[in-house]
Specification:
By secondary structure, the protein is mainly alpha-helical. It has helices spanning 3-28, 33-62. α1 (3-28) packs antiparallel against α2. It is elongated. The relative contact order is 0.16.
Length: 63
């Protein structure tokens, strides 16, 4: 993996963290349970994506 690709993955991790934070903050201000449920699902999706990206970095670091 090139340095540019590693930087891209690190940047993507940062974006996922931001999306998770935005969704969690939005959930706190919602009353509509349908929207809350939708955003909770989105948070889980983005947490999974972030974990997969972190795993990619860990695999590269152990090589």
């Amino acid at each position: 993996m090139t340095q540019k690709e590693l930087l891209y993955i690190e940047d993507a991790i940062g974006h996922e963290k931001n999306i998770i934070t935005i969704c969690e903050d939005t959930i706190k201000n919602l009353e509509d349970q349908n929207l809350v449920s939708f955003l909770q699902n989105e948070v889980e999706k983005h947490k999974n994506i972030k974990e997969r990206l972190l795993n990619m970095l860990e695999v590269k670091a152990s090589e």
